[in-house]
Amino acid sequence: MNNEFLINLLPIFPGVLLLITGLILMLRSSFSEDTNVVNLYATGGALLACLLEFAILISNCSACSQGAFSGGAYGILASDALTSFFRFLFLLAFLFSIVNLCFDKLFQDKKSSVLIILFFASVGGYFLISAREVITWYLSLELMSLSSYVLVAAHLSDKKSSEAAIKYFVAGALGSALILFGLVCFYGFSGSGNFTEIYQAISVADTKFIALSSIFLLSGLTFKLGLFPFHYWVADVYQGAARSITVFLSSAVKVAIVAATFFICRDILVFFQEHLVKFWWVVLALSSLLANIMALRQKSLSRLVAYSSIANTAYLSVGFLHLEKADFKLALLNYLVIYILMTLISFISISVLQSDDKKSLLGLSKRSPFLTAVILINLLALAGLPPLLVGLFAKIYVLKAALSAKYVGLSIIFIIGFVIGCYYYLKLIAAMFTESENSASLIIPVITKIILFILAGTLVYYTFFPVRLYDFLGKLV
Amino acid sequence: MRYELIIISLVLLPLLSAVTLLTGNMLKIKLNPRLLFQTTAWLLLITIFFLSIIETLPAYQFAFRYLWFKSLGVHFAFLLDGLSYLLLLVSALIFLLLGVFSKEEESSYYSSLLLVQTGLFGVLLADDALFFYFSYELMLFPVFYILYVFGNNESKESVYKFFLYTLFGSLLMLAAIIYCGVSYQAQFGKLSFLLSDLAKTDFNLTTAKYLLSGFLVAFAVKSPIFPFHSWLPKTYSSAPAGASVLLAALLFQTGVYGIFRFAMPLFPEAYQVCAPYLAILAVIGIVYGALLAWRQTTVKRVFAYSSVSHVAYSILGLSIIGVIGITGGLFQIVSHIFIACGLFMLAGFLYKRLSHDNIQDISGLASVAPKFSFFMLAYSLAAISVPLTINFPGEFMVLQAAYEYNQWLGIFALLGVVLGAVYMLGLCKKILFGKAFNQEFRDLNKEENSLLLALFALVLTCGIFPKIITSLVIPAVNNQVAIFSENAPEAIQYKDQNEYYLPEGITLTKLMNNE
Q1: pLDDT in tens, A277-334
Q2: Which of A119, B208, B444, B486 could form a disulfide with A22 if both were Cys (CB 3.0 to 4.6 A apart)?
Q3: What Å distances lie between residue B123 and B94, B110, B132, B324, CA to CA?
Q4: CB contact (8 A) between residue A393 and residue B72
């Protein structure tokens, strides 16, 4: 290992750290099953990775536009400011999922196994975001996806988990196959896997054949994102998986997939932008409408939040319509940040409630004022209502991007989606304040209270002091 | 003198009180919410009175702005002129009365009221379209909370309908605002939502018509204008007492004020094209509301439909472009605030004593409760626009403008006045006179008496000296009419070309150059 290798490794060191932590856990678990020590290693590893990534992000931003580490690792992996930001968001969501899992009673006997696979999934996600080369990208995607399939099945005694895992596996494999077909066409066409070289090859050649493979690639990515024609797996998987795993799937995996789609769209598919816009338009419009309408009928909380997360992914994906414009990139990044916070709170609160039924929210204002306040803040932000202006800002940026490019029809469809979304969020809020016979006080573990307080506090903080966040995001684009 | 702090405090004070109540509730600190609310209301009223020392208040056009964040280009921009001042004063007074009138003990009720107050004052003071929108939306959830948690069980669906209907309109207005901001950015380079900036943007007529309709839909649902009023009757009639006062007396003014402050200056040509349709809808609303009010079976529903009818007068006034019409429309806002407050308070007292307000089962209250009957009859006469009450000058101006604009419009609007007399006096006849009431009915106690008396004194004062209101409103109206006259002069024909009323020493050019 000479110096050059180490220097090239430095920008992606958090990813290497995650891998090392996973391996240490694997070694450790074969010797002893001491839960506390396992928790410590896991949390420590995740936290360290997160902090390192933050350091990289700061150093990238202070060295202004040309990141200090761009073009590292032989052009296969990138580490510029935007990549670093996505990775930081991913690691933050991952950290929250790890902390939530560590204190979850559910996996007492096999917690270390679950943690190991989680770490491997995070390694996959980390390198997925950093990859700028087809094979690395696909390998990381598969690493993360396969680990996720196993994680969903981890709760073996629950039949719903196994069913959800099979559905996830089939849908995910189909998506991966479509992506692979598209990527292989690009690879074969350009003779090189590197994104920039693929783009150069496309732009000088006859594009009819390549346009077809871009549709395959995009369909596969829509599968992974969980948008309209391929959204049927999301509700089942989010409901069937154990709560802590759903926290990971809905936040960290979503960040990784959105970032992966972002870089593919920006570097390769941007060549076909004017044709792909029509595809995205239909996907986004129908996702937001159908997901919101389907959420109206749900009796299960996790399915309801799953459908609402499909709709929210549709709103944030408005950025993919015109990735070359800063407005759209800003809308995507902003909505992604707020969405991750809100999703984390949603699924962590569901795990605290211990029950999947909407009726478990009844009378919550008497049973646990803290949880009521947190869920109220979360739902108001999701609905985009003042006093939680942070959600409204996110929606305004989405509408601003759409209207600045004159997508009036799409804006109106999104507005209809917002209104339908408000209806079921309001129903949840109203259920919390309704009188109910069940008056047993809800006990929430202290760590969960701290996590929820931090997340909800961040939402409230960004309502009143949004300047730093938006200036930062503006600099990134 | 620096007035900025005082004006910001008008919005900050209720917000801080609401936050205090909420955190006190969460930290289990003992606070007396009613006392806090009443203190806040008094402080606000005194502050607003203090602002009257601004010498040139009616034409003041005071503005200051503070950039919130550059990325979105939204400012905290405040504008205080005669109309805003008038509506702020009246609203603060109604909140004070509401504080005395409400008998709830829950602190969440009062924190919601305080948040509504923040939103309302933000709406009345806003000079920036997005700040206006945030305040407009801020009022939505607390009202939903009050109506849902403190209302009775039969009304839950209607509360959702009210909320979603209003939200849909507001979101369409948001799309229009964002489009305006983006167009300003395309034309001038930087992103800004200030009213004066947005007014400079050029729109072609088709785009302007669409944008105007986006704004008007939101205001049409809020204030309600005829086809969009279907949320109103059930919501008002099943609302708890204080909330219905709140809704009827305070929230509608955001719609009408929004039309005057935002829809008119931003899109003058498009507004002149839309104005005749708006006038027709308003007249239909007047007659429709009056006819339906005649046929209702509960007191609150009669008042709810009469609300539809009276707000339609404001809209009619605003849709006839000319000093008299618009002044009448703005005057009607104030008169409806007072009268709706009085009427719904009376309905609240009635409901509290009898637990129902079916007209069929009530009669002859005059012999049992003379004070109540006196006020019932007094407010009914005020609602009918008997001269010497506040409703008369405003309605007269609206009717005069309507008749001059189009003879048939004026005749149908006049029909609405007659129908108003029919249903209001008919209601009084049915519940106050006739066979003596055989059940227990406590007359008004001192507190209730003084509330209604104070309000009625104001109704009479403003009716006898309407100059109090018109002098505050006229300069803003002149500004607005001047904006209309420099565009598309062929749209509205006046009988007399020089119909403007201008205070001495101010010429039209001076007004137009005065930003």
Answers
A1: 888 999 999 999 999 999 998 889 999 999 999 999 999 999 998 888 888 999 999 9
A2: A119
A3: 16, 20, 5, 25
A4: yes
Name the pLDDT band for A140 (thresholds 50, 70, 90).
very high
Which of B140, B164, B175 has the CB atom closest to A411's CB atom? B175
Q: Measured between alpha carbons, how far is B330 from B395 in angstroms, rounded to an integer?
A: 10
CB contact under 8 Å between A419 and B70, yes or no, is no
Q: To the nearest whole angstrom, how far is the Cα of A385 from the nearest Cα of chain B?
A: 7
Q: Quick one: pLDDT at residue B514? A: 43
pLDDT band for A400, please (50, 70, 90 cuts). very high
Residues of B in contact with A382 (CB under 8 A): none
The torsion angle over the Cα atoms of residues B95, B100, B102 and B108, rounded to 10 degrees, is 70
From the list A387, A403, A470, which residue is nearest B178 (CB)? Answer: A403
- Residue A470, chain B, CB below 8 Å: the answer is yes
Residues of chain B in contact with residue A449, where contact means CB-CB under 8 angstroms, are none
- CA B305 to chain centroid: 16
Euclidean distance between CA atoms A233 and A224, whole angstroms: 10
- Cis peptide leading into residue B393 (ω within 30°): no
Average of pLDDT values for A464-474?
Answer: 83
- The Cβ of residue A253 has, within 10 Å, a number of other Cβ atoms equal to 26
Instruction: Report the distance separating Cα A407 and Cα A315, nearest Å.
Output: 13
Count of CB pairs separated by less than 8 Å, A with B: 86
- Please return the burial class of B27, using the count of CB atoms within 10 Å of its CB with bins 0-12, 13-18 and 19+: exposed
Alpha carbons A86 and A264: distance in angstroms, whole number: 14
Question: Could you tell me if A9 and A73 are in contact, meaning their C-beta atoms sit under 8 angstroms apart?
Answer: yes
Say if A369 is an interface residue toward chain B (CB within 8 Å).
yes
Pick B152 or A463 by higher pLDDT.
A463
